[in-house]
Amino acid sequence: MDAIILQTFNGLSLGSILLMVSLGLAFAFGLMGVINMAHGEFIMIGAYTAYVFQEAFAHSLGGVEAGVWFVLAIPAAFLVAALLGALMEVTMIRFLYGRPLDTLLATWGAGLVLQQAARSIFGAPNVNVSSPIWLQGGFDFGAQLLLPYKRIFIIVLVAVIIGAVYFYLYRSANGRRLRAVMQNREMASCLGVRSRWVDASTFALGTGLAGVAGVALTQLGSIGPSLGTFYIVDAFMVVVLGGVGRLPGTILAALLIGISNTLLELGTSATVGKVLVLLAIIAFLQWKPSGLAALQTR
Amino acid sequence: MAQKFRIARGWGKLWRIGSLHSLVALLLLLSILAGCAAPAAPAAEATEAPAAEEAAAPAADAPEGDTIKVGVLHSLSGTMSISEVSVKDATLLAIDEINAAGGILGKMLEPVIEDGASDWPTFAEKARKLIQQDQVAVVFGCWTSASRKAVLPVFEELNGLLFYPVQYEGLETSPNIFYTGAEPTQQIIPGVDFLVNELGAKSIYLLGSDYVFPRTANLIIKAQLEHLGITLAGEEYVPLGGTEFSTIISKIEEAKPDAIFNTLNGDSNVAFFKQFKDAGFTAETLPVISVSVAEEEVRGIGAENIAGHYVSWNYYQTTDTPENKAFVAAYKAAYGEDRVTADPIEAGYFGVYVWKALVEAAGSFDVDAVRAAAKENDIEIAAPGGPIKVDGETQHMYKTVRIGQITDDGLITEVWASDGPVKPNPWLKGIDWAEGLAEGASQ
User: Fold this and answer.
1) pTM exceeding the 0.90 threshold for the entire prediction
2) B4, A194: Cβ pair inside 8 Å?
3) How far apart are CA B282 and CA B288, in angstroms?
4) Residue B296 and which of A35, B86, B197, B329 are 20 to 30 A apart at CA?
5) ipTM greater than 0.90, yes or no?
């Protein structure tokens, strides 16, 4: 029984991590049709922001253990990644709308540039971001069942982010303009929506979310220049399975992949588990090419 | 409209908040990037160590007299650069020291640095370029077994010479490669012995990345466990670069082993040790011994996440020899106080000195003469990790095996060492339980 609860929790946790890394991509790819291969690098930028905050501010803000720096790093990473994303949109992606293959190559190149930049600034070896004291350990439910605080924290954080994104998209004026532009660009422009501004802010929002994911992932994984490459494939997998352009689809897909991956891995091995999940996704996309929750198109 | 302006003002505010620092630095670097391979050894400040002063003399300052080109072939970009950049740095340090001391046979060494880019075909292509176009006398390079296997045919075809600085799975010899890292009898097999004899482990769990080194290493370990009568508690492989360990940790919990033998490589180690600690394991309840985690990796994992666990190597930064004190001081002086040295870094460093000794014994830079010199002489040098002897037959090194325990400050202290250097035995000859393994590999 414990094992089942633990494994369900593990699946939920993996799902929340997948959702974290793919939410930003769902914006760029799903809403704007931009295949942003540099998405992983924005996760990396978020992780390094946490590292910079730890090195620069942990001492003056109650020490590494208190974790004030970590909390502050979350909005800071959003801003840093969003700013760089906006810069990339204005200087590069803007000129490539409607040319998906060119954007793919250009963002791939931009990703390599960002990786090498991180390598030059912070050095090639991994750096370490410590855990605040309140993220160490976990809820102990007896011998076989210990739910780490870090994983619970990521699940909560992702829930908060989804709430914020929902509010932004469906309850704010900016969100309304965004949806208008995505549905019919010309009509929205005619009605006075500055579509260029909407494009830039949407892309920046996506990369900013990647930055937040980066901060959260410092608690579970490595922090190095090539950090983004470990997550980019998973992120695309989630967005494609979820159905391009639908956030509920993305959420569903992340949880589905997370849970099925951990369950299959338990019965087989890590590699075979991943292969089985990929096969299942391919089979599903054969049956429903537009994903779990495809946008109705006319 | 008003709302848009408010947002614009909000964005303006971001610039003042303070994340500006890293952003500006990032942008600056974009422009530097184009020409940036990697700077050669920066001029060092004066220190007490004599070796450091030698390192301070820039290699390029020696145009008078003849020079001889030597190749340095490591991944300076891509996923493996995490490890390989430091080895390249150590190799360049040794080259600078040798030049400052007058070079080899009156010739100054001129390093030609190539980037293998963590891509095996690129390694082969760059190796060919170094040998054919630059006509280098020797190449110091490679890290992964995959990259070594990719360049091996090139070196054999063109009769080049490669010094390979990393511990590996053994079961290989080539007339064109000198191996300055450990083979299994100098690292993996003593590591298992340590778990069984010193820690009293009765059942061992094998965890590794899914590629050639861990799978071959685990074949050897499984044969050894069977021979020792130790239970194999489980065997798991994670795709290279994998970051999710929750399920594997559940499986480990279920199997209840006494110890874990870890052959994970690269970033997966960071994820594993962080998540292993979160799941409530400590080095006291379940010790892990690693063969791909050295001082450099410990920094990335975070000492607090891995303190108390064990590693098996031939060298640690704390190894107590006079040569090591000079080496550590010189390395830190050249590349920064916060840098650490580790086993492959040391092997990349003393490899240049081994080549120097071989060339001087041969009286020539010629590859065949160097190889013959290795067979005819007993070449011995005092490396930072202790005395090293070249085995002319296998072109591997006699090395001292050292088991270390990771301390709270991220360094490694030795807890067990072999009696003197161990003779290399890459084909595991004369080991009964390993007989089938060598045959399998040579086919």
Assistant:
1) no
2) yes
3) 9
4) B197
5) no
